[in-house]
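Q: Structure tokens for this one, please.
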Amino acid sequence: MEEKKNAIDLTDLIARLLSRKKFILIWCAAALVVGLVVAFSIPKEYRAGAKLAPEYTNRSSVASLSALVGIASSGLGTSSTRDAVYPELYPDIVESIPFLTGLFDVPVTVEGEETTLFDYLLNHQKKPWWNAVLNLPFKAVGWVVGLIHETPEIPDDAPVDNFRLNKKQMYVVSALKKRLGVVVDKKTFVVKLTVMMQNPVIAADVAQKVLGELQRYITEYRTEKSRQNLEYTKSLYETAQADYFTKQKAYARYMDSHQSLSGLSAATESERLRGEMTLAYDLYTRMAQQLQAANAKVLEETPVFQVMQGPSVPIRKAKPSRAATLLVFLLLGFCISSSWVLFGKDFFTAVKNR
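A: Here is the predicted structure, written as tokens:
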């Protein structure tokens, strides 16, 4: 009896829908029209991507480098530590303000004219028409709040200060965060980079720039300490070299000017100058070895990146999907009209009876 009752109810619902099929079709047609307007109002977006396989594990070539340049004897050490900037942190690096502001000056071409990525995102973006309508209340509230609480604003032409950005700079930073994507495979540590732009060529150019900047950032971080040690060792080497050359010239001049003398004082002075030259030479050779070791250390710490897939100019848009938009609006129109046919009259009757 229960199954029979349910079958009767379902048949009744279908009959009620068929009795108002013209009404439902009109709603579906109207929804399709609205869907067409929405679908063609959303600007086209193009996605450019790249895949990067960074070096994550410590390399085993330290021993060979140590044998070649004598790292062990130089005091630099051969122990290595786990990389502090591991691939899981790459998305946070790309979303950081210093990284994003570093992309402001990337050159792009818009309608045949050279400009910057900052200007492109600020002044050359197409937006749906309803954005202006929806933003009016927020602009009005912001204007009223600005009248009540006056806060000093940073000039629009102020240089970029990562500690304090002006409104336009913050807007571009937010836009870049939405358009850049970095996903890391936790098993293989392959980094997948995506860039979404309204211009396909600009999307590929920005993807190439972000790829290079990410590699440069990681390289500088990994080698910063070694490069500082290299600069310090280089300065010591140059000082030792200059001191050795000075001592060598002083000994040579003294020997040339005292060749005919055979006194004890001349021999003593000759031995002193020769000893100073020898000590300076020993220091000079040790510093040369340490300089070679410091160079090797920088090479050792420099990470290796394998670009598995480089950016290329996309030929098809990534969004919007007009077919999906039309389908959503069609289903929405059918659901609204069907709900009205099935439950609208009963709802208003119940409200009226109350």
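A few notes: The chain has one domain: 43-319. Confidence is low (pLDDT under 50) at residues 57-82.
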